[in-house]
Amino acid sequence: MKSRIVLLGAPGSGKGTQAELITRHFAISVTSPGAILRRERDLGTPLGLEADEVSKQGGLVPDDIIVRLIEDWLNLHGKEGFVFDGFPRTVTQAERLNEILQKQASSLDLAIWLEVSEETVRDRIASRLQCRRCGFTTSVTSAGFAERPICPYCDGPLIRRNDDDASVLQTRLTEYKTKTEPLLSFYEKDDALHRIDGNRDRDTVFADISALIEERVK
Ligand SMILES: [Zn+2]
């Protein structure tokens, strides 16, 4: 199914999990700026190295670099639709995405907003484990991982994400509120925005998202 979707939500809202479910169920390619950046860096491309330099110095990769990476990715893989997890993060990025899609004579089908309470975010992040090798994320409450913290995909070690400690989380939440939440009204104007209650379990949330995709893309 050809569908162009952006998934929006606070850290811990379940975007990554839902993006994976969408990709498996509807065979739409999923990506995130983080995944693209890691790949570009591993390939040693000029943009990848530039971005790596910025993050090594502790900075956020600027809008401009993120948008160029996304545009390259869209030119290569975007023909059959996409799900973006964690992009756009700012109104500037969203405007640039619209321009890129216009150039390709297409437009966004859905902006899905996973709404979660701060309590949900804190609970989820406190129990999150990530594979140091491949980036797979899961929760300590998922079957068996607490006793044997080994990645089911690559046997790498599952560790608590070091960017999830309290002060970093606070910074990410503040940044989300000031920079990303304005996207709500941006996509509302376009009639692309759909809010979904992300406080529920992942299958219930996914059932709502599936229904939305099927209805919207018909
Ligand atoms: Zn792994």
Distance between the termini: 10 Å
Q: Specify the CATH class of the domain at 3-116 and 180-217.
A: Alpha Beta
Superfamily (CATH H level) name of the domain at 3-116 and 180-217: P-loop containing nucleotide triphosphate hydrolases
* Biggest sheet details: 5 strands, parallel
Task: Bin the helical content.
Answer: 40-55%
The coarse silhouette is globular
The name of the CATH architecture of the domain at 3-116 and 180-217 is: 3-Layer(aba) Sandwich
Short description:
By secondary structure, this protein is of the alpha/beta class.
Summary keywords:
218 residues; alpha/beta; 5-stranded parallel sheet; 16% strand; globular
